[in-house]
Write a structure and sequence with these properties.
0% strand, 68 residues, mainly alpha
Length: 68
């Protein structure tokens, strides 16, 4: 029978295991929520930089620029 849930959180002590994996693999004490929020901010920041480059190159938005 297949598992009905996925991810580390579905395992016993899943949240604790996940936090330990973060500490070991990326050597930070940030929480999963903090890492996710950082990732979202970085996507927004990089999208802004790329949009500015597209505009400077004469394109009206990033979507058209990205199609090249």
């Amino acid at each position: 029978m297949a598992a009905s849930t996925i991810g580390v959180s579905s395992l016993p002590y899943g949240a604790r295991r996940y936090r330990q994996a973060i500490r070991e693999l990326i050597t930070t004490d940030m929480s999963p929520e903090e890492i996710h929020a950082l990732g979202l901010r970085e996507v927004e920041r990089i999208t802004g930089l790329l949009t500015n480059l597209a505009n400077q190159a004469g394109y009206k938005d990033l979507n058209i620029f990205a199609l090249l």
